[in-house]
Q: What sequence folds into this?
């Protein structure tokens, strides 16, 4: 393994470091979305129970004590319950847009890693080939040092493969997480709209 890292050069170390960052981001976001999904049902059921009884202060207290996207959107709906239904829905939509940056946290970094990893691999290919052809240019095809030549070619091939290996899962998870954010926003809006109907029926 150490020999492989040595042949890959400093660019391979950079690619490995980026892969560690990408894994950390993916794990962080998956845990975050799982927690949101778990809390969502519990918070919403408690809010509906409180709102249906007209206990709006209790509902607001639930939102305050359970900071999450569903609680933040519900709080907007409850605080503006006296407004027309269409106005409440527009305010909830605006609040949902404010939650997007929280859900997309670190995703731009993941997307950047997905795009630059293969470029770094290509850079390793270029530097490896420069080293390899430099040997041929200095000593000639016959007198060249085969070990140095092989090392340059190995660096080129290893970094290219490493860049692609990091990029493929990073792109896949990036697209998955972005899609999940979009679906989550729509679901949150629908859930809160259900709460709005409960609010309007209780008037």
A:
């Amino acid at each position: 393994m150490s020999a492989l890292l040595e042949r890959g050069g400093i660019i391979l170390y950079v690619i490995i470091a980026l892969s560690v960052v990408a894994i950390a981001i993916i794990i962080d976001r998956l845990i975050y979305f799982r927690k949101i999904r778990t809390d969502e049902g519990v918070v919403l059921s408690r809010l509906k129970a409180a709102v249906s009884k007209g206990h709006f202060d209790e509902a607001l207290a639930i939102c305050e004590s359970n900071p999450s996207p569903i609680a933040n959107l519900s709080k907007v709906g409850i605080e503006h319950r006296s407004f027309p239904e269409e106005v409440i829905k527009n305010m909830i939509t605006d609040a949902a847009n404010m939650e997007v940056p929280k859900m997309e946290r670190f995703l731009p970094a993941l997307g950047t890693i997905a795009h630059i990893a293969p470029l770094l691999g290509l850079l390793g290919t270029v530097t490896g080939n420069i080293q390899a052809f430099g040997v041929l240019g200095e000593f000639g095809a016959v007198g060249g040092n085969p070990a140095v030549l092989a090392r340059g070619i190995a660096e080129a091939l290893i970094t290219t493969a490493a860049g692609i290996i990091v990029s493929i899962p990073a792109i896949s998870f990036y697209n998955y997480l972005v899609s999940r954010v979009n679906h989550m926003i729509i679901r949150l809006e629908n859930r809160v709209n259900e709460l709005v109907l409960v609010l309007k029926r209780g008037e």
